[in-house]
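Entry 14. Structure prediction run on the chain below.
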Amino acid sequence: MTSMSGSIPRTFIDDLLTRVDIVDVIDGRVNLKKAGKSYKACCPFHSEKTPSFNVSPDKQLYHCFGCGAGGSVIRFLMDFEHMEFVEAVEELAKSVGLEVPYEGGANKSRATSSKRLALHELMTQVSDYYISQLKNHADKNIAVEYLRQRGLSGKTAQTFGLGFAPAGWSNLTAVFGNDPGTVQQLIDTGMLIRKEDGRVYDRFRERIMFPIRDRRGRVIAFGGRIINDDTPKYLNSPETEIFHKSHELYALNHVIKSNSTLQNLIVVEGYMDVVSLADKGVNNAVATLGTAITEQHVQILAKQCDVIVYCFDGDAAGKKAAWRALENSLPYLKKGMQFKFMFLPDGEDPDTMVNQLGFEGFNKLVSQAKPLSDFMLERLLEQADYRTIDGQANLIEKAKPLLSKMPKGGFTNLMVGRLAKYVQIPEQDLMRQFNIEGAADFANRQLQRNTKKLKAEKPSPVKLAIAMLLEKPDLALTIEHVDELRHLLLPGVVLLHDLLVFIQTNPHITTGALLEHWRNTEDGQYLPKILNWEHHVPSVGVESEFTAAIALLYRQLKDQELEDLLHRSKIEPLTAEDKKRLSTLMLEVTS
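Output returned:
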């Protein structure tokens, strides 16, 4: 079994995870504090004041009880550093002095990883070149004067790595063009454009250059703002192997570095807005990159902070873009999550507003942003005249698809309550139309269901054994004749058997390594759920409960074998060996 289409052997990953300490890896990125046998911190994946992020050195796992994030050290690097799986494995291997082996058709994965690394390094060199041009080029005063007119300080320009692409069609080839391979890389990253006749030319000319960085701070693309009256005013790098604009936010890495805790996160439309805000001390703004706010953007934003403020122009185009952002944000209205909408006066943008109002004034404007619920209701009422019966019906139909995107719970119930006042339908009736249970009724019924379930449910011994095995893998070392267990015809037995065999073969395996070994498998999606399941077995009794669960399974295996032999005896004569086995089983089962 291999990871990522057979690229890295599972055996190597298993071995790697025995050499890496998750506490060391996470503590280098998050400030962990000892708490008993574990370590705690404020979660790096969502905003919180009380630490709920837990790292277990015994299990080699992390888990946040606030947002639910969790997994192995590989998963942490993938989520925290925005790494691909192979990148995360390579990073860990490098930290312990191992070289990642690749097998089968995986040379392609290694080549892809190496190619991306080379592209990142080249983009850093290109960024350095543009910075040098802003300092040294003969026409630098044009660019410097433009930045001064926009109110930007030299310190801010340095912080964001701003540069200058001078006039000319072959500046990059003059610096990097000696090597045909480098020229091709510049084409691959969109920095050069190849004409039909084979000649190449610079994409960016006479522009202020804004390096676009990923969350890890690596340069992945550029945005260029024209200095003269040419068009387009703003020009971004095209989509490339290392740049996908619908998944990236300009200056997110700056926000993360500049804020230990975020009260809110402001989303604006342009990188000049972000830089101007930062120049005045507003260091919690990011921008989309020439695209509308996507659901992928919202997913990234929701991991950073509980309050997201979208900033748009107050014209029709701005309202349309805001509505699209609202639709993409609805699925992420989890408990405590807020999305707000800030609309600017005609002709104004965050750049001009912060220059007019200053730090305090602009933040006051942010604090007055409109809650999602108000914006949503206002827009719905603009589209349907609730004073007529037809308008009320239209309002209900327009609200349905929006409410269906929201997570079930208090916010949705409150929105239905507000709509009920306009359509003059009792709240409970409207909830039934939207297939939503009333808040009070739902809570009472759910409580009754849970109470009955707790009283009646007897957890499966298979599920119980797997849960305890995940908590304490070395329990597997106490079990003999594991292969026999595979013949038991019960759901989950095959997974339990495979876990037992794997742990006995790898006696020092950790919980995190187990989850990683089964990642991207059909069974792997259930293991984290079982690990987080409350089985109510105290830690001091895990060994005895596990032994009892396994003993019960072996007893059920004997019952199954006995039933099979009795059934066969009615159909055909049993062999002497079968008769002897039947007699033995009957004595054991009845004793």
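Residues 384-456 form one domain.
Filed with the rest of this week's runs.
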